[in-house]
Design a protein that fits this description.
alpha/beta, five-stranded mixed β-sheet
Length: about 230
Amino acid sequence: MSVKILAIDTSTENCSVALLVDDQCYVRREIAPRDHTKKVLPMVDELLKEAQLELNQVDALAFGCGPGSFTGVRIGIGIAQGIALGAELPMIPVSTLKAMAQGCFRVHGATFVAPAIDARMSEVYWARYARQKNGEWSVVDPETVIAPAELTESLKKDEESWFSAGTGWQTYRDSLTQLPFEVTSGEVLYPDAEDIACLAKLEWQKGNTVAVEEASPVYLRDTVTWKKLPGRE
């Protein structure tokens, strides 16, 4: 089945856009933590021109739905919704943690991946995935936000060798290297639109899309604890 999927992700420092046309993927990416809003739309235009397509020829718009930077996730979804609304495209939300698992498979052929994004406040966004023969990822540890020390205490030893992915492994290296299983560096620091597009293709084939107004973020952390100031609740 022929498919054309435009993917956007701004959930972390990496700003990336991908255009998957059947088995060919056009990609733009740049580490630009403060310039996502300036970079995304020009990247979209460049890819459409490179692929010689018009926006209305795209089948669906995929986006990194989080977790990640609160601001980054909101920016990505807002831009994606604007594009999808104007072109009347269905949308496909893709987990940024699962996208990093896919990135490790793309780079290393890894089939057991433990992504961890630095969530600030001494916590990580965490999950573990195992790749299936059909290209889908089964969930070993569900997505959560947790202190690395709690992971060390709660996870059980297993015999698999896991590939690490994400900034959480750099920020909390001392704690995460104490986990009760073998870990190999996957060298993938950020979710990327190329991998989001690949995962979105699987969802498209199953008919799993959402309308623009139903596209929503996954923050995992619903509230942020701020230091209370005198006179404030």
